[in-house]
Amino acid sequence: MTKQIHLAAHFPGVNNTTVWSDPASGSQIDFDSFRHLAQTAERGKFDFFFLAEGLRLREAKGRIHDLDVVGRPESLTVLSALAAVTTHLGLAATVNSTFNEPYEVARRLATLDHLSGGRAAWNVVTSFDAFTGENFRRGGFLAEADRYTRAKEFLQTARELWDSWAADAVAADPESGRFLRPGGVAPFRHQGRHFDISGLFNVPRGPQGHPVIIQAGDSDEGREFAASSADVIFSRHSKLEEGRAFYRDVKRRLAAYGRRPEELKILPAVTYVLGDTEAEAAERAAEIRRAQVGPQTALYFLEAVWGRDLSGYDPDGPLPDVEPNLDEGVSRGHAAFRRDRGELVSKWRALAEEKNLSIRELAIEVSAPQTFIGTPRSVADEIDHFVQADAADGFIFVPHLTPGGLDDLVDKVVPLLQEKGVFRADYTGPTLRDHLRLAPRTQNRTEETS
Ligand SMILES: Cc1cc2nc3c(=O)[nH]c(=O)nc-3n(C[C@H](O)[C@H](O)[C@H](O)COP(=O)(O)O)c2cc1C
Predict the structure, then answer these.
(1) Distance, CA of 309 to CA of 307 (rounded, Å)
(2) SS3 sequence of 260-290
(3) Can you give the residue ranges of the Luciferase-like domain (predicted)?
(4) Contacts of 344 by beta carbon, 8 Å cutoff, 6+ apart
(5) What is the ipTM of this complex?
């Protein structure tokens, strides 16, 4: 059966994918930038617009890492404003489960769901590091091994709060003089390892019941959490074979929770470059990579893995001859570099030797080359193939420019996907659950009792 593709738009982030130095690049914080990107995604009939979150500025060698965009506003506030200038587009906020409280997050997401007419989504992330924790009153209080037990209990508690209001709880009946239908709001009581709370929730049930839940972790616990509790996975697996292995692995886990494979959509983060010919696209892609990985960024990549100050090395020269310092991290707040650094150094050395690469050339080669490069036709074909081959259910597109970075995708590639009959010509329902073809979420199920 031909699968329908799901598409989402990621606002350019605080990493080197975003080319803020390009003359076409606009503000990362003005509302007009968010509005332009969201309205472009809606014009393309995308499922949702996605905002990432980082709760502490990245640092390198004790200073702010200021080569990439630094600073960003808070997601739920931005999405609430976008709800007023969009009508169908889903609005996905990344909100951490380690440094927040369920009552407050549940309130804010239910509010966004109301304001947007059922378009809210929550990307539940589980920040691991005490470095981020220092920004919060309780410091790095959570051991890494506990972050998913807290995330799971956090989400379960939020679901209990959302479920404490019946869909028809508000009667507003002048005859009886009662605002609420008797029994329409139940008290909640949650007693668990991480939360012990009771009372009455104060936001009526949102149009979707529960917002769409997104999960972005990749560890075994992360995948299990997604299989038990999420509607969407935001994955890093954007290469065909790797994507298929991830897809098989996660979809296979769903049965244990009484769920069907189509109840969890897998959407890798991807990037793209278009040209009128394949050669033009490839040339543009190489230019963008050089803008993304300047000499200082190349050194930073290596320093993060080597655990050493490498500022004495020439970015256009060979790889450092010193051994990595695996006890030290010089980069803080950057998730990508925290595991297997020794192995990575050996792999990079072998690659640089084989292809005779300088530090900068190596960094360009190993750090996230664009996923789809080609003409609108070849990119549309590749996107479709990726989904039909069960390497994904769709994609979260990460543009390199703010705010015009998705314009050509929407104008040139989306119509071809629509022509193929693999992407919607128009929205068929008002809510994000409708776009994702997910059933309304009304009941706590297996995840809560397991
Ligand atoms: C594609 C992707 C996007 C992510 N986006 C964010 C983010 O915006 N904010 C954040 O704090 N963590 C983000 N994460 C980190 C994860 O939520 C999680 O904390 C991290 O991957 C570690 O979990 P793991 O050990 O299960 O992989 C992202 C992870 C992935 C794979």
Answers:
(1) 7
(2) CHHHCEEEEEECEEECCCHHHHHHHHHHHHH
(3) 24-389
(4) 305
(5) 0.96
Q: pLDDT (tens digit, 9 = 90+) per residue, 284-294?
A: 999 999 999 99
Question: 14, 125, 152, 218: which to mutate for ligand 1, most atoms within 8 A of CB?
Answer: 125
Q: Please, which residues have CB within 8 angstroms of residue 423's CB and are 6 or more apart in sequence? A: 4, 5, 7, 45, 414, 417
Q: How far is the CA of 302 from the centre of ligand 1 (A)?
A: 21
Ligand 1 nearest atom to the CA of residue 13, by list position: 8
pTM: 0.94
Cα separations (Å) of 339 from 269, 289, 304, 359?
20, 24, 11, 21
**Domain residue spans in the chain?**
6-276+371-449, 294-366
pLDDT band of residue 329 (cuts 50, 70, 90) is low
Q: What is the CATH number of domain 6-276+371-449?
A: 3.20.20.30
Q: Whose Cα sits closest to atom 6 in ligand 1?
A: 52
Whether the CB-CB separation of 247 and 391 falls below 8 Å is answered with: yes
**Alpha carbon distance 233, 254 (integer Å):** 13
Interatomic CA distance for residues 155 and 164, integer angstroms: 14
Nearest to 302 by CA among 61, 113, 63, 43: 61
Annotated binding residue 431: no
219 is in an annotated binding site: yes
- Collapsing DSSP to helix, strand or coil, 64 comes out as strand
* Cα 270 to ligand 1 centroid, rounded to whole Å: 15
C-beta pairs of 251-254 under 8 Å, 24+ apart in sequence: 253/223, 253/224, 253/227, 254/227
Nearest CA to ligand 1 atom 28: 216
CA of 219 to the centre of ligand 1 (A): 10
Task: Indicate which residue's Cα is closest to atom 12 of ligand 1.
Answer: 125
217 Cα–ligand 1 center, Å: 5
Written as six digits, the tokens of 355 are: 């292809």
